[in-house]
Amino acid sequence: MTEVLSKPVLVLNRVFQPVQLTTAKRAFVLLYGGSANALDEDGEEYDFALWRTLPVRRSDDALPIIGSALRVPRVLHLHRYDRTPKVSVRLTRRNLMFRDQHQCQYCGKQPPLRELNIDHVLPRSRGGPDSWENLVTACRICNLRKGWKTPEEANMRLARRPFRPKWTMTAQLLLGSGTKYREWEPFLKAS
Questions:
Q1: Could you confirm whether domain 93-146 is CATH 1.10.760.10?
Q2: Which of 143, 144, 95, 138 shows the shortest CA–CA distance to 116?
Q3: pLDDT above 90: residue 25
Q4: What is this structure's pTM?
Q5: Per the database record, which ranges form the HNH nuclease domain (predicted)?
Q6: Cα separation of 141 and 111, whole Å?
Q7: N or C: which terminus of the chain carries fewer CB neighbours within 10 A?
């Protein structure tokens, strides 16, 4: 049951923009408390009383309750929340490699993930910061070849200048979740 309660649910603001992913447990709290309605695959809205009458299909996740089961909603629509969250992409190894498309920025190869490193364009030993604009994905061979030098000193060229990404909330949600449900698609495409 714990696994079912931790399933991701897409939360939409009042104007149907994706806001965040939450757990099924939190989704049921919002639905039962009247703060949100559940949306089915056709976009129909249901309050808790109507949602609990829907049958659980084979493709649905189900929460066992006394005498039956409750369908886990995939999408929630908040009644009163208007804000659109500001997107600030965190500097992490995963996000950096995603920005660089898991490709060495020096030789252009796409080796297995375990063969990729993070390289400081201006080495740390020379005051290079840990920033979006100074970090790139590099294969082990290129990273060792470059060493403590700058790309110019090592006679290596960057495929492109490193930059701070400006991803949408949709990209953030998809990066944060390993799951993507069919019911999410209309809302993720629109944003």
A1: no
A2: 138
A3: yes
A4: 0.59
A5: 91-144
A6: 11
A7: N
Any idea of the CA torsion for 45, 32, 173, 133, to the nearest 10 degrees? 130
With cut-offs at 50, 70 and 90, classify the pLDDT of residue 133.
Answer: very high
120: burial class by Cβ within 10 Å (0-12, 13-18, 19+)? buried
Residue 185, token pair as written in the block: 């698609």
**Mean pLDDT over residues 135-140, rounded?**
97
Return the structure tokens found at 14: 């009042």
Question: What are the structural domain ranges in the chain?
Answer: 2-86+168-190, 93-146
Phi, psi of 173 (to 5 degrees): -65, -40
From the CB of residue 116, how many other CB atoms can be counted at a distance below 10 Å?
22
User: Which contacts (CB < 8 Å, 24+ apart) does range 126-134 have?
Assistant: 126/150, 130/91, 131/91, 132/91, 132/96, 132/99, 132/162, 132/163, 132/164, 132/165, 133/161, 133/162, 133/163, 133/164, 134/162
pLDDT at residue 78 tops 60: yes
Q: What is the DSSP letter of 84?
A: -
